[in-house]
């Protein structure tokens, strides 16, 4: 987008064009990638052929998340996997956090909607720090629970935030698109570093140019992945990376084939002025995941798409979220809720898993080994178990 190029010129970054070969499973094509002294990676989406799921994934496993008579998760808003525990937060329907071990056994739940000191009015985000659970409330409040889900304390923030993470003892908050004066000379600041002990805040990204056309919250936009901390927001083609005390461009996704109009970032235009044209455009719809070896995000363009960038091999792959599951005949990779090593994790409603197994049996009579493994799982499944953890293993 023009705004990104202008930002690079203003920053005085010298761009060197390097031609790299990039393969996508069985597909192979040349892509143009850009590198700078700041090690900015530019991924031209138009040059990447869409992959089949089997081009990228070689095996899929299933784990039932066990039923508990007093608790059920209905909606999957955010998933974290830490220290062999699965944390699933349902922000809206059940307004609760469900915790399981990696074998699917229920551990405990936190259900605290309300306005008390140990309650959240509306969950914006949550994180796990050394087993303890921290919840960001819409009122600008942090609520702390111990590793068994027992309330410890709450802390009021001097600003309202919509997402957060933690880096070396400091919090990093995304302030959303809400006007504020947290930047230099009272300018609006989009990402703020804050120390809970000293109460000191520092603006680390002063762009304030993203927009969200939907009422739902952006998910996984501020993420620690490996040793890096990334930030991406709706419509912005740049994924920022923390360097020292600032966030600078780390990855730029080039949607040159059909990008958003320049007025997308003009504060004079509201979201309603251009949302009617979105269905024909290609744009970033971030959901950041990954490991030290690869980075995953999403973009819109003929549906939702996963963009997987292998930083070690400098290869990029694109999988449409509704692409047929040609690995075991099961569920497509609709979402990437979390990552364990090279396993892309999706939490899915068990009823739909069983429906897909029944449909597969209607479609054919003979099954390969992986299809049979999926059907065997479904045949032994306890229909009372509400959720299934599906692990898609990257090649």
From TrEMBL:
PROSITE patterns recorded: PROKAR_LIPOPROTEIN
Superkingdom, natural source: Bacteria
Name assigned to this protein: 6-bladed beta-propeller
Protein's organism: Roseivirga echinicomitans
Upper classification of the organism: Bacteria, Pseudomonadati, Bacteroidota, Cytophagia, Cytophagales
